[in-house]
């Protein structure tokens, strides 16, 4: 899979932009603040279900405008589709594929990307919520129907939390508690489905992570993954789950037991304390938690290895070929050895898009096609014979 053309209207700092792309590596080069990341942000939006930089969409719309349009042509073999997004500052966003309206949550079915950016260091050193988001975005790319399950779980969770607040305010009325039992069962049903999808995904990521870490770091450290389920042990010290498959019946029973055990505390705090929304992806290096024991360089290598593992899993699953690999301002953070090893690790993917402020940071074999970006304007490629004409800002 690769993007052959990207059109933008009122997206970030682009009033209008046209970008032609080919398979293979492409370097988007320019000083900081010119709009390089904005381009790859637009390309990755459909597969991630949003921006990798901000939580809401308002910041994606050019100042003073009400909506932004992103249109891209994506090719695989001799087939191509056109994906179009209308991102609004108010009201619902809209999406089309080949002119037909689709739901936003269905977009990962059509575009697969794996993006690595400096913010991804938080996958190793940050809070559990970032690691959950990484897993769930990948779960949806592999199985788009899971977007509905995750959305339903979030809605049930909000309803349950609202009921807990009402129960606390009404001093635990019997009616509120009876209704809570109904929401508990719905939470368990959806939660176990999410837990099972995450367990299966982590099992597939593990061998690719080990290989990816060795490839990037050049060290034979033991990098591995496990899941910590709050529904198994609500005390917060749940044993690490490194199984390849979830026992759904047992997990449901444990989930129900944990909800019952924590009900008094939940009523006091008016919040749901156990479930997939409080689980964590645990990263270990040589048997120790990477979050607290990995050095800065090891943390970068680990985050890169996670994204490489994701790309390999999507490659194995997808009928549409390789995911589009995006390296956003990554090479500046790496030493020369890691730069070369990362270039080796991504060289065989169908399309690799790289952004950089300093051309010498990027290994030469990834910079054969260079497209300068200047103040929201896509310049013509500086490579003889290439035609990557750009649109004005």
Automatic annotation (TrEMBL):
UniProt record, GO biological process: DNA replication; DNA synthesis involved in DNA repair; double-strand break repair; SOS response
Domain annotation RecF/RecN/SMC N-terminal: ranges: 3-360
Membrane-spanning parts: none
Classification via Pfam families: SMC_N
GO cellular component, one term: cytoplasm
InterPro entries hit by this protein: DNA-binding_RecF, DNA-binding_RecF_CS, P-loop_NTPase, RecF/RecN/SMC_N, RecF_2
GO molecular function: ATP binding; single-stranded DNA binding
Physiological role: The RecF protein is involved in DNA metabolism; it is required for DNA replication and normal SOS inducibility. RecF binds preferentially to single-stranded, linear DNA. It also seems to bind ATP.
Record's protein name: DNA replication and repair protein RecF
Record organism: Microcella alkaliphila
